[in-house]
Amino acid sequence: PDLYCVVGHPIAHSRSPWIHARFAELTGQALVYEPLLAPVDGFAAALAAFAARGGRGCNVTVPFKHEAAQCASQSSQRVQLAGAANTLTVQPDGSWHADNTDGLGLVADIVQGAGRSIAGCDLLLAGAGGAAAGVLGPLLAQQPRRIVVTNRTAARAQALVARHAELAALHKVELLAQGQQGLEGDFDIIVNATAASLAGGAIPVPAGALRPGALAYDMMYGPAAQGFLDWARAQGGQPRDGLGMLVHQAAAAFALWRGVQPPAQQVLAELRKTLS
Ligand code: ATR
């Protein structure tokens, strides 16, 4: 069977091996997908050793997504804009092709999982690190009316917006960076792409930013997402954690590698059951 992996540090907690094994089972694909722990300063060496063992493709998680984008000899436009990759595929000449399916995963879970349309709505993206950069392009492609990027460090939000200005114009989306002032009551969808909860920080958007019934999406899941989801519910929003994004980004990677679309919604339902 063909060999794949997810590489990160730490990696033992990763649900990706379970998700991909289930995809393979349900689509009849013969593959092995393993967790691969790389030393923090040893990503490139771990990747080379994996390729030498015959590895065909690799998902990349924290903290290696930036390095993954750099080590590839070819990369998608999404990766070039994000500066981060989560999916690597071996090319016939042995070099790596990099893609980023995080944004596709987020969009698929908002549309199919939460049943929301992004087109025409006002969206607030909190955060301007790798997680936010990885999803901005695919969010723009859904043609919301407006995306506001807000971040603790304003300069980072401005840089992210500047990098995506051309793509925003192409999709006719108003894209801007803004501080916490003036965000009240304006948004149909809020996406939390910050690490504030891990850092023990406050909710990274001001109270009142959500319109009634707005979707409040945290890209994390489990205990790390709980504070934001509780806050969103108390604000009259519809909370949703990032478990669906995890499954859908995996499904998009699986489809790139195998040319087969796995049943992501079914596997998400199964995963929720095993975690509850
Ligand atoms: P990631 O790849 O997870 O996005 P990152 O590049 O370190 O990691 O970015 C973390 C994001 O969470 C950033 O937007 C960061 O804000 P800064 O750019 O100001 O650092 C945000 N973040 C982290 N801790 C935070 C806190 N306590 N409050 C608000 N935002 C926080």
UniProtKB/TrEMBL annotation:
<feature type="binding site">
    <location>
        <position position="102"/>
    </location>
    <ligand>
        <name>shikimate</name>
    </ligand>
</feature>
<feature type="domain" description="Shikimate dehydrogenase substrate binding N-terminal">
    <location>
        <begin position="6"/>
        <end position="88"/>
    </location>
</feature>
<feature type="binding site">
    <location>
        <begin position="127"/>
        <end position="131"/>
    </location>
    <ligand>
        <name>NADP(+)</name>
    </ligand>
</feature>
<keyword id="KW-0028">Amino-acid biosynthesis</keyword>
<feature type="binding site">
    <location>
        <position position="242"/>
    </location>
    <ligand>
        <name>NADP(+)</name>
    </ligand>
</feature>
<dbReference type="GO" id="GO:0050661">
    <property type="term" value="F:NADP binding"/>
</dbReference>
<dbReference type="Pfam" id="PF08501">
    <property type="entry name" value="Shikimate_dh_N"/>
</dbReference>
<feature type="binding site">
    <location>
        <begin position="151"/>
        <end position="156"/>
    </location>
    <ligand>
        <name>NADP(+)</name>
    </ligand>
</feature>
<feature type="domain" description="SDH C-terminal">
    <location>
        <begin position="242"/>
        <end position="272"/>
    </location>
</feature>
<feature type="domain" description="Quinate/shikimate 5-dehydrogenase/glutamyl-tRNA reductase">
    <location>
        <begin position="116"/>
        <end position="197"/>
    </location>
</feature>
<dbReference type="InterPro" id="IPR041121">
    <property type="entry name" value="SDH_C"/>
</dbReference>
<dbReference type="Pfam" id="PF01488">
    <property type="entry name" value="Shikimate_DH"/>
</dbReference>
<dbReference type="GO" id="GO:0004764">
    <property type="term" value="F:shikimate 3-dehydrogenase (NADP+) activity"/>
</dbReference>
<dbReference type="GO" id="GO:0019632">
    <property type="term" value="P:shikimate metabolic process"/>
</dbReference>
<dbReference type="InterPro" id="IPR036291">
    <property type="entry name" value="NAD(P)-bd_dom_sf"/>
</dbReference>
<feature type="binding site">
    <location>
        <position position="86"/>
    </location>
    <ligand>
        <name>shikimate</name>
    </ligand>
</feature>
<comment type="function">
    <text>Involved in the biosynthesis of the chorismate, which leads to the biosynthesis of aromatic amino acids. Catalyzes the reversible NADPH linked reduction of 3-dehydroshikimate (DHSA) to yield shikimate (SA).</text>
</comment>
<feature type="binding site">
    <location>
        <begin position="14"/>
        <end position="16"/>
    </location>
    <ligand>
        <name>shikimate</name>
    </ligand>
</feature>
<dbReference type="GO" id="GO:0005829">
    <property type="term" value="C:cytosol"/>
</dbReference>
<keyword id="KW-0560">Oxidoreductase</keyword>
<feature type="binding site">
    <location>
        <position position="221"/>
    </location>
    <ligand>
        <name>shikimate</name>
    </ligand>
</feature>
<dbReference type="InterPro" id="IPR022893">
    <property type="entry name" value="Shikimate_DH_fam"/>
</dbReference>
<dbReference type="InterPro" id="IPR006151">
    <property type="entry name" value="Shikm_DH/Glu-tRNA_Rdtase"/>
</dbReference>
<keyword id="KW-0521">NADP</keyword>
<comment type="subunit">
    <text>Homodimer.</text>
</comment>
<dbReference type="InterPro" id="IPR046346">
    <property type="entry name" value="Aminoacid_DH-like_N_sf"/>
</dbReference>
<comment type="similarity">
    <text>Belongs to the shikimate dehydrogenase family.</text>
</comment>
<dbReference type="GO" id="GO:0009423">
    <property type="term" value="P:chorismate biosynthetic process"/>
</dbReference>
<dbReference type="GO" id="GO:0009073">
    <property type="term" value="P:aromatic amino acid family biosynthetic process"/>
</dbReference>
<feature type="binding site">
    <location>
        <position position="61"/>
    </location>
    <ligand>
        <name>shikimate</name>
    </ligand>
</feature>
<dbReference type="Pfam" id="PF18317">
    <property type="entry name" value="SDH_C"/>
</dbReference>
<protein>
    <recommendedName>
        <fullName>Shikimate dehydrogenase (NADP(+))</fullName>
        <ecNumber>1.1.1.25</ecNumber>
    </recommendedName>
</protein>
<feature type="active site" description="Proton acceptor">
    <location>
        <position position="65"/>
    </location>
</feature>
<feature type="binding site">
    <location>
        <position position="249"/>
    </location>
    <ligand>
        <name>shikimate</name>
    </ligand>
</feature>
<comment type="pathway">
    <text>Metabolic intermediate biosynthesis; chorismate biosynthesis; chorismate from D-erythrose 4-phosphate and phosphoenolpyruvate: step 4/7.</text>
</comment>
<feature type="binding site">
    <location>
        <position position="219"/>
    </location>
    <ligand>
        <name>NADP(+)</name>
    </ligand>
</feature>
<dbReference type="InterPro" id="IPR011342">
    <property type="entry name" value="Shikimate_DH"/>
</dbReference>
<dbReference type="InterPro" id="IPR013708">
    <property type="entry name" value="Shikimate_DH-bd_N"/>
</dbReference>
<keyword id="KW-0057">Aromatic amino acid biosynthesis</keyword>
<dbReference type="GO" id="GO:0008652">
    <property type="term" value="P:amino acid biosynthetic process"/>
</dbReference>
